Amino acid sequence: MIITSAKPLEEILNLLQDEDDIFIIGCNVCAAKLKTGGEPEVLEMIRQLEKNGKHIVGWALPTAACSVRSFDSLVQKNEKITEARCILVMGCGSGVSTVASVTEVPVFGSNDTLSLGGSSEGKLLLDQCKMCGKCTIGEFGGICPKSRCPKGLLNGPCGGAIDGMCEVNRENDCVWTLIYNRLKKINRLDLLYTVHAPQEHRVD
Amino acid sequence: MLFNFREKLNSSKFLVTAEVSPPKGTKFSVSLEDVRQLKGIADAINVTDNQCSIMHMSSLAFSKLLLDAGHEPIMQLTCRDRNRIGLQSDLLGAYALGIRNICVMTGDFPSCGDHPGSKPVYDLDSVQLLQLVRKLDSGINFTGNRLDGGTSFCAGAVSGIDPEKPLQLIKLEKKVRCGADFIQTQAVYDVGMFEEFMEAISHIEVPVIAGLIPLKSLGMAEFMNRNISGVHVPEEIMLRIKDAPDPVEEGLSIASETIKEITKLSRGVHIMPVGSHKNTARLLSMAGISGK
């Protein structure tokens, strides 16, 4: 799940200050789950923008803003989009850019995109994956140091953790302590002795 | 100089290294003057690399200034600010300028320093950086291309000293496997803990140089216990500093006693005073260590 958070209304109004006749596109997958772009949030956004003098021509809620096939598929959802002079997408950055790829009018986003994460037992799990390509998470007990260690270290912790808490944010567990505890539990501490090569960032 | 640092590492001499920071600006005379107090005392001088993520003159440039002034530098190199291209390029440049010793470390996160919003790099970690150094030493670059002249570095790394931290010990073992010639440690206040650490790594055959930061006040001791990972100032030392009429003098006495005990356990001592080296010569003589 892509983790997003809603931008403050003032920031959105500032983005839209020279725009009107706005069409809103929500996202019924990640953003809906996180309450940053599902139907209730889209309707609330319409109320707020109208309160601030904006004209909303219509709205649509595709399954996922990041899988919009074409402009025609958006017209099928709500033909009012043809009257729009700009589009506000209430999804992640990927949703905004997908919509922007099928239309000529200006496209804006209402959210900040934080990370690839998940949610479990009512808690939001940030930075579970960095989408870096070759996946080595299995060598770390299913806990990814590339995404959860702020330094992305692959061969063990830095010297900065205190009492198992991260140097960068003392509220967070040092991910290496979590990795150690997990590998100990599954009897695979041997994996910690592997010397890992640096991450390849090559784009083929 | 009869011996260089690498030769001394392989001798039986008890080593003294000391840490200095490059200036924050282009005027280097004050920093150089501070180092001058170490002449005839320190076997080599560590030059910090934007320590605590606070921007200073480059460790490479200041190491060269030390070299020109007749000192033997150990250029510190962190993984925070350069990718693998920048690291190799600086290493080749350092070698060409006559810098022969380096000490690699991860580097504090930028948010700790004076440019908290800067982009952290960490393209390599300290273990991988040691591997890279050994590649340059064998005449090839990271991707295997032949260099027009390789390097021959004496390369060290750092370690915490808490024997109860298995991850730190495993990482230290990896650093040695990847070619560390020496290890400098976090500050030692608890000699018992250091003894246990040395016991825990007794299978590792690499010279260990024990870190030392003379205490100056009770506040400093409390700060170290609270904020510096792996540093443990025992209660007994806290009380000595607290009750002392002159905490700086007491801090030097404690440090000199620690050095005396450490001589039996380690290959040397690495002095990291906060501020200046004005007391370093006296500290070493209190500990019974004469010049090199």
CATH C-level of chain B: Alpha Beta
What proportion of the residues of chain A is helical, as a percent range?
A: 25-40%
Number of domains of chain B: 1
User: What is the number of domains of chain A?
Assistant: 2
Q: Major sheet of chain B, described briefly?
A: 8 strands, parallel, barrel
- Mean pLDDT value of chain B: 96
Describe the 3D structure.
- The complex is a heterodimer of chains A (204) and B (292).
- Chain A is α/β, with parallel strands linked by helices and 204 residues long.
- Chain A has two domains: 2-114, Rossmann fold, CATH 3.40.50.2300; 130-193, no CATH class.
- Chain A has seven helices and seven strands, in the order βαβααβαβαβββαα.
- Chain A is elongated, with a radius of gyration of 21 Å.
- Chain A starts with a strand and ends in a 19-residue tail after the last helix.
- In chain B, strands 1-2-3-4-5-6-7-8 form an eight-stranded parallel β-barrel, surrounded by five helices.
- Chain B contains eleven helices and eight strands.
- The model of chain B has no long low-confidence stretch (mean pLDDT 96).
- Chain B has helices at 5-9, 29-36, 59-68, 84-96, 126-137, 166-177, 191-200, 218-227, 235-243, 247-262, 280-286; strands spanning 15-20, 44-47, 73-78, 101-105, 154-159, 182-187, 208-212, 268-271.
- Chain B has a single domain (11-285), classed as Alpha-Beta Barrel (TIM Barrel).
- The longest helix of chain B is centred in the C-terminal third of the chain and has 16 residues, at 247-262.
- Chains A and B meet through helix 7 of A and helix 5 and helix 6 of B.
